[in-house]
Design a protein that fits this description.
Length: 231
């Protein structure tokens, strides 16, 4: 019995060293992620809703006649209601509901207008840059061409260059939260794969360490009782 207890203790010690660092990362990242309400992390109070749409009978864009579409919807934008035409391949175009005329893709000034029309904070626009759909920023995670409107408080807004839709809003705290999430799931590069070998492997080791501790507990208690009886 003593040899078994010694062997179990030795295994428990080595497993404890192996899982010590990931356990620390899980704990620290978990504390960071619950430090602030998720609504504040996402910046849900940074944008006001757009006003209700008001217009006469809309004109269907002539360009969509006989064309296969994924969707055709009327949506509000900073400049007013717009037809949003989405093709089967995912590409989108805007059209004027009053005339049905297709509109050009958004320019940088249009993207800024989409953000400032709804922004409820005090920060100012610092820069506007175009993103590459083939190499989107990590904080965007969408393979789509956007305008990144950056504010001087570190907040970034991503506006679709074709449809004017706001894909994402990212605060400084969101980026820190996202880093902690990547460490928590042990995918700091992509920060999306919760089924990667690292997190599974260390999770199994942590489980084995816990089971060993529970197995050693009655053996340790029994030994102490015997020692007490011997005295």
């Amino acid at each position: 019995m003593g040899a078994m207890r010694t062997r179990l203790r030795r295994w428990h010690i080595w497993l404890g060293w192996l899982v010590g660092i990931p356990m620390l990362l899980w704990t620290v990242s978990g504390v960071v992620m619950v430090w602030k309400p998720i609504e504040e992390v996402r910046g849900e109070g940074l944008l006001r809703p757009l006003p209700p749409m008001r217009f006469d009978a809309p004109v269907i864009p002539p360009a969509v006649a006989g064309v296969q579409l994924h969707s055709l919807s009327l949506e509000q934008r900073a400049a007013g209601p717009r037809w949003v035409i989405t093709l089967p391949d995912g590409h989108a175009r805007l059209a004027d509901p009053a005339s049905g005329v297709l509109l050009p893709p958004l320019a940088a000034a249009d993207a800024v207008r989409e953000v400032t029309a709804r922004y409820s904070g005090d920060a100012r626009v610092r820069s506007v840059t175009r993103t590459d759909p083939l190499h989107p920023p990590l904080e965007l995670r969408h393979a789509v061409a956007t305008w990144r409107v950056s504010l001087d408080d570190g907040t970034n807004f991503y506006v679709d260059a074709s449809s004017g839709m706001l894909h994402a809003k990212r605060t400084r705290w969101w980026r820190f939260y996202d880093l902690m999430w990547g460490l928590h799931i042990m995918d700091p590069g992509g920060r999306e794969d919760t089924h990667n070998p690292w997190v599974i492997g260390f999770g199994i080791l942590a489980l084995a360490t816990t089971i060993l501790a529970l197995a050693m507990l009655p053996l340790t208690i029994r030994r102490r009782k015997r020692s007490g009886d011997g005295r």
